[in-house]
Amino acid sequence: MVGRTIPALAVIAVGALFLAACQPTVDVSRASTTVRTGLALAPPDTPVLPLGRDGRPIRPSAIEGSKVFLKAQCIVCHGPEGLGNGPAAANLKSPGKDLLTDFLLLIGIRAKGEQLPSHPANFHNVVQMRLNSPFSMYETVTRGRPHTAMPSFGPRPAYGAATFGVRLTDEERWHVIFFEWAFSTTPAEVARGKQIYETRAMDVGGRMLTCAACHGADGDGRGHEGLALSAKLWNWARGQGPGIFTDVNLMAQRKPSELFQAVMDGHGEMPSYRGKLTDDEVWAVVNYVWTFVYQYPAK
C-alpha cells in the first residue's frame, strides 16, 4: 500500500507545479498612474422606504400611522394604547396550518393543526422594542408572523401566516410601524434626549463637544466637527452610514440596542461615553435620534 502511495503523491506534486508554472502573468509596468486616485464610488443603495413625490424616501409619521392603526383594526388585538390588551387579545389562536396539514390536503384529506394561543405584541415593552428594528416590524406587518394570529397586511403573506382581508399600501405600513415604535418612549424622554444631544458638552480628546457638534443639529453629520470627519470618512462625505441619523436605509435596519452600545463603548471615530452618561441618559439620546427618521407626535 505504501509503495503505491508514494508514486501517487509524486504525480500530484509534479502536476501542481506544472499548473502553477502555467498561470498567466500580468504586465503592470505600463499601468496608468490614475489607478492611485481610487475607484469610483458605488451607486447609492436602493431605498428601503418608498419614494415620495420629491424622489426621496418618505419620512414616516406616527401621526399618520395612528390613522392606519385604526383603519387596519390593529386596535382589536393590540389595544388603543398598544399594550396588547385589545378586546380580541385573550382569545387569539394560531391558524392551525403547517406542512403536515398542507401535505394531507394534496391527497384530499382536510386536517387542522393544533391552534396554539397567540399573544399580540405590547409596544410598551421596552426590552422587546430595544431588540427590534423598524424593518423587522415592517416585515411582520407586511408578511405576517407565521403560525401566530398576526396576519399579513401586504400583498404576499408568509407561509403559515394568517390573512385578515385588509391590505395596506407600502407607505401605510411604514407609517403604522412608526406609530407603534413611538409607544416605546415618551415625549418627556425625547425632550430630555434632545437637550443632552444639543447642549451637553463632554470631553472628547481634550475638547468639550456636544453630540450635535459632530452629528449635526439635524442628525445629518453636518456639525462643525462633522464636516472635518467628512474628509476622513467616505460614508460621511456621502451622508450615509453609521452616525448619519438621516440615513433612513441604515436606521430602518438598526436596533436601539445597537445605538446604545455604540454610544457606550464607541467605535472608530466615535468615542465612548461610558461613565460620562448614565444608562437612562443614553436611552433618552437614542430615542431622540430616531426622530430624525420619523415624525414623532411631539416634534
UniProtKB/TrEMBL annotation:
InterPro entries registered for this protein in UniProt: Cyt_c-like_dom, Cyt_c-like_dom_sf, Cyt_C_IC, Cytochrome_c-type_DH
Keyword tags: Electron transport, Heme, Iron, Metal-binding, Signal, Transport
Start and end residues of each Cytochrome c domain: 60-184, 188-293
SUPFAM superfamilies: Cytochrome c
Record PROSITE patterns: CYTC (PS51007), PROKAR_LIPOPROTEIN (PS51257)
Gene3D superfamilies: Cytochrome c-like domain
Transmembrane segments: none
Superkingdom of source: Bacteria
Signal sequence range: 1-20
GO molecular function, one term: heme binding
Protein name: C-type cytochrome
